[in-house]
Every structure is written in C-alpha cells, then in structure tokens.
Amino acid sequence: MKSPRNHKAYWAFLGHRLSGLALGIFLPAHFYVLGLALEQSQRLDGFLKLAEMGAFKFGEWGLVILLSIHMCFGLRLLAMELLPWSTTRDARLSWITWGGIVSFVIGLVFVARVVQ
Fold it and tell me: Which residues does 115 contact at the CB level (< 8 Å), separation at least 6?
C-alpha cells in the first residue's frame, strides 16, 4: 500500500500550510519595519542598508516563493471547494503541478530582477 505522504495532494497541503505559517511569522517583523518608516527614519535607513546584503536578498526570494506557493495552492483549494462542477482526480493533480510551476517561474522572475 502506498503511503499517503507520497502523494502530490499531501505535499500541496503541506506546502500551503507551512508557507502560511512562515508568512505569519514574517508579518510582525514586516510591521516593525513599517513602524520604523513612520517614526524613526534614521533607524529605517540603517535597516535598509542592512537589507542590501546577500542574505537578505536570499530571504526576499524565499518570501516571494512562499507567497506564490501559498497563493497557488490556496487558489487550488478554493477552486475545489467553491466551483460548482466536479473535477476529476487528474485535473486536481494537474492543478498541483501547475501551482508548483507557477511558483517556480515567479521565483525565477524575481531572481532575474534582483540580479540585474
């Protein structure tokens, strides 16, 4: 018997949930930096210089990937739940594949824009 954890739908479920958790952890840091922009422009300037480092650029790329994974797999879940027509198993699996491809392409586009 094949393990349910070796199924595309399980990995889509896991990717959607984990990307949502990671984005939820990121939001307080993001709000802190926005607060700096409003209250302490000198500290914001220091943070922005720090954000030019390669590690931060890698983190930005990771954030873009997380956002695109969460969006693509979330749209897949909405389609499965809300569309009035039923879909075949193959169609649902192709949505997973296309969600992964779209997320990968978005990540490549982001890297191409950052590297310029």
Answer: none
Nearest to 66 by CA among 11, 21, 5: 21
Nearest-CA neighbor of 87 among 69, 6, 95?
95
Q: What is the pTM of this model?
A: 0.75
How many residues can be counted in the chain? 116
Of 89, 84, 62, 72, give the one whose Cα is nearest residue 16: 72
Kind plus residue range of the DSSP H or E element containing 52: none
What is the structure's pLDDT at 86?
61
For residue range 38-63, list pLDDT tens digits in order.
Answer: 888 788 788 888 888 888 888 888 88
* Residue 85 CA, distance from chain mean position: 28
CA 106, CA 101: separation in Å to the nearest integer?
9
The 3-state DSSP composition of the chain as helix, strand, coil percent (nearest 5) reads 85, 0, 15
